[in-house]
Design a protein that fits this description.
2 copies of one chain form a homodimer. Chain A is α/β, with parallel strands linked by helices. Chain A is about 40% helix and about 15% strand. In chain A, the strands form 2 sheets. Chain A has a 6-stranded parallel β-sheet with strand order 2-1-3-4-5-11, sandwiched between helices. A 6-stranded mixed β-sheet of chain A has the order 7-6-8-9-10-12, with helices on both faces. The longest helix of chain A has 18 residues. The radius of gyration of chain A is 25 Å and the shape is elongated. The two termini of chain A are about 35 Å apart. Chains A and B meet through helix 4, helix 8, helix 13 and strand 11 of A and helix 4, helix 8, helix 13 and strand 11 of B. Chain B binds a DNA duplex through helix 2 and helix 4.
DNA sequence: CTGAAAGCGCTAACAA
DNA sequence: TTGTTAGCGCTTTCAG
């Protein structure tokens, strides 16, 4: 069915286009009666104003989208940013503009940038939330001002954000567990390395890995969970100590991007060929560990695609009025030695189309 | 500085708006001289077309894109179609229209539909190529007429198609081999089931699996390759015969979507728990075999994403003049029991955003 | 209170 | 080869 226009409504209601406009936009100067009639017809015929026409007559008012994410963590947020910016670029000709305004890192400049963004003329705000407890209030403030907040690479539970695009930590944990279970011998003993258990994402990954591993593996179990607080130093020390303390470890699941210290500690202890690793995400320094067979697989959270998706959701909403889904979880990709070169983080050669390498 | 419009350029160049339009869009029918003048002014004044105005006017003369794919093979082409049509839908307001004109199946109505499409007013043609040797000529004919041909879910080697979006058969084979190698014991004996070895896709999958498996697996090898010619009957018979003939098989790689007959044959022979399967793609009837642990993993070719990508490439080309990449290979997704429910083919609940389940 | 008409920047059909 | 013109759907102004 064709899209209906103001002119059509005017004809149907036997009034002029001006009258319809007044009714639709409650500009007053209109009788209750005609207004009702017009509104009824509009609703019935499912009238949607044509955004292009509106923009045209309203004069250049490009739709700005604020982008507030940290500068980079091991390439992850670089990818998110690329996804957002390249995604936005595709809609440039539709008048979409992304305002990239990063902050240094979580807890540093985050709040200020966000505040700043709220003052500017944006239609939507894409943000990567940390754990700052004030976020929920800021989000409320934004939505209050009709700025749609889309969380990316995380979520703020209990907030009124329009939607969140992220990977599902429980799914990541389960996939990692399933793979690990198939890689190790029966009765295997596994250690988990994670960032901080106070972080809900990490704690979910850990608990769902543990649960799933014990379900999938034949008698295997998780013997220890170690927090590294995202510190390379700490991770290395703790891993080294662990290797001295425990003589039999069959595998390790590293639920944070901080996996290199573990690899080097394993290597230093001469156990790099013995302990099987399942990691998270991917970056160039991991390649040799894949090649040696230390890292068997990695659960990739598709940062680029998360960025692209966030933009898509905003654009679809703004232009087509498509409602935001409550949450948008992406299916993880599994990184293997075979497909390593297909990931944007690894292959920077532009010979292949990059839009979809993730 | 205010934004400059076509009218301004026309005034500056002492020509009419129509002429400026022709110059800017290389529509021909214009003298080299005036064109140069206009282009110079446009560049100088940094002219950018007004997206709203363009959208508005494009709304009435939609850009048609032909879509010529088979009706369905185990949901695969349904997904491709959804990807294309939903992708196109997002650009509806920019005047993009997809003309879905499917054929019954490969070799049946394919040529006719294609011919038909060539006669219609389309700007691009998205097609899923079979093995018809006349395709190359048809593609040549289309490109001759300035109809960009984008192959999806396959390619026509040696043709002048603008680009192809597909999964890389060699990569699929290698990923399958790597997983298989990690799932089975040392010295494992593997059988490959495929469609038809005359098909280059299948033969590449088979050979790269074989090669990679022998590299990854500790002494394992591929002991047999069986063609099923996409027939369920044939697959079942051959698999049953095989199981009688060979007592020890550790795993099977099924490089075609036709995996159910193999599962049932295994089951009938009481070996469903013994032989480990790595399959291709996913559809609802496979679920129980995942749950029983017969199918350990599947290499998913992302049909929906292939469709979306094809449309994206066309749209980006038409609107932004972005050149087509020579070929666009998608990184495969690995289907596991854990993430089974995340695939569009399996989960039809729309609670989660579906755009990205692939 | 309502209608008529101008015009946003662009494209395409037709005239010259 | 170029110019002219009629809209696309909407807002806004000015007359009734």
């Amino acid at each position: 069915m064709k899209r209906i226009s103001i002119k059509d409504i005017a004809r149907l209601a036997n009034v002029s286009r001006g009258t319809v406009d007044r009714a639709l936009h409650q500009r007053g100067n209109i009788s209750e009666q005609t207004r009702n009639l017009i509104m009824r017809i509009a609703a019935e015929k499912n009238y949607k104003p044509n955004p292009a026409a509106r923009m045209l007559v309203m004069g250049r008012a490009p739709v700005s989208i604020g982008v507030c994410i940290p500068k980079e963590i091991r390439l992850f947020f670089d990818q998110v940013r690329d996804g957002i910016m390249e995604g936005a670029h595709r809609f440039e000709s539709m008048g979409i503009k992304a305002n990239y305004s990063p902050f240094e890192r979580y807890g540093q400049g985050e709040h200020e940038r966000l505040k700043e963004m709220l003052g500017s003329k944006i239609k939507a705000l894409i943000m990567a939330p940390g754990v700052d407890p004030s976020l929920s209030a800021l989000i409320g403030e934004a939505e209050e001002k009709k700025i749609h907040v889309v969380c990316v690479a995380g979520d703020v539970e209990g907030s009124v954000r329009s939607t969140a695009v992220c990977s599902d930590p429980e799914l990541n944990g389960r996939c990692a567990a399933e793979l690990m279970a198939k890689f190790v011998r029966p009765g295997a003993r596994i250690v988990i390395f994670t960032g901080m258990l106070v972080h809900p994402v990490h704690s979910k990954e850990v608990s769902s890995f543990t649960e799933a591993f014990e379900q999938f593996a034949d008698g295997g179990k998780v013997i220890e969970v170690i927090e590294n607080h995202e510190s390379e130093e700490e991770a290395f020390q703790k891993c080294s100590a662990l290797l001295k303390r425990v003589r039999r470890i069959d595998g390790m699941y590293i639920s944070t991007v901080n996996c290199l210290p573990v690899c080097t500690a394993l290597n230093a202890a001469g156990r790099a060929e013995k302990v099987k690793l399942v990691t998270t995400d991917v970056f160039p320094e991991m390649v040799p560990w894949f090649e040696r067979g230390t890292i068997l697989a990695s659960v990739y959270q598709r940062p680029y695609m998360q960025g692209q998706t966030a933009i898509s959701l905003v654009v679809d909403h703004v232009f087509s009025g498509r409602p935001f889904p409550p949450t948008c979880y992406l299916n993880p990709l599994i990184v293997l030695r075979s497909n390593l070169r297909m990931f944007r983080e690894i292959s920077h050669q532009k010979t292949r189309k990059e839009l979809n390498l993730n």
